[in-house]
Amino acid sequence: MSANFSRYRFWCLTAAVCLPCTIWAATIGTVVPIGGQGSDLALDEARGVLYIANFTANVIDQMSLKDNSIHTSISVAAQP
Fold this sequence. Notes:
Layout: H1 3-24, E1 38-44, E2 49-54, E3 59-64, E4 69-75
Antiparallel strand pairs: 1-2, 2-3, 3-4
C-alpha cells in the first residue's frame, strides 16, 4: 500500500467522522447571559417561562421567553 493512498484514506475517514459533528454543533436560538453557570433547564411552555438552575449563584433563575430577561431569582441551597 502506497504512502499516498494511506494518507488519502486517513483524510477521507477523518472527514467522514468530523464533518457530521461540525454540522450538528451549531448554536440554536439566542445566547442569554445569566450571570453564572446554568446547569439544568426546565421549560414551562404554557406560561412562557424557562427555569435555569444557576450553579454558581445558588439560585433558580426564572427567565421570560418573551423578552429573554431574568424576572425572578429564587435562592436555594448550594449547587441547585
